[in-house]
Design goal:
Elements lengths: L1 H8 L5 H6 L7 E4 L3 E5 L7 E7 L14 H17 L9 E5 L11 E5 L6 H7 L6 E3 L7 H17 L1
Antiparallel strand pairs: 1-2, 2-3, 3-5, 4-5, 4-6
């Protein structure tokens, strides 16, 4: 029954769930019991990593207030992978999430990019300060609590339409 439910929900088909359960050849750079970090397949910066929860969460839109510690740990792992890869300035990074429907994979993932100042125009549009669909946590503009509140707000608006 559990397998049927997983299959019906699409989790078995989720690329990131497969990566999190080591069912692909994706190189895992950092991991713990809850999170996995790996390189983005289409990097938007010299250093571009993704941090995902092992548990399937479809997007920041589905986060609840009790997910705040998870988002904070995702941010910390994003910073850790950048430090591990000797990013010179942690002030020149972007850490954030795309709002649906602008996320490429329907599994919550934090982008960790550096150096932000060297991103090309296409990457600036997707991950930069002027992007309307990329919510950042890296510069303190939106804290994890606000990401979740914004996700709940968007979810409630979508339900009304």
């Amino acid at each position: 029954l559990q397998r049927l439910l997983r299959s019906a929900s699409g989790i078995d088909d989720c690329k990131f769930c497969q990566i999190a359960s080591n069912k692909t050849d994706t190189e895992i750079l950092l991991s713990d019991d809850e999170l996995v970090c790996f390189r983005d397949m289409k990097p938007g910066a010299t250093h571009h990593y993704l941090v995902i929860p092992r548990m399937h969460i479809s997007s920041c839109k589905t986060l609840k207030m009790d997910n705040i510690p998870l988002v904070e740990r995702m941010e910390q792992m994003g910073r850790s992978i950048l430090e591990k890869n000797k990013v010179c300035s942690l002030d020149d990074v972007r850490l954030g999430f795309h709002l649906p429907p602008f996320s490429s994979v329907p599994h919550l993932h934090l982008h960790a990019l550096a150096p932000a100042s060297k991103m090309n125009l296409k990457s600036q549009l997707r991950y930069g300060q002027q992007s309307y669909w990329f919510i950042t946590v890296s510069q303190g503009w939106i804290e994890p609590r606000k990401i979740i509140q914004l996700g709940l707000f968007i979810y409630n608006i979508a339900r009304q339409t």
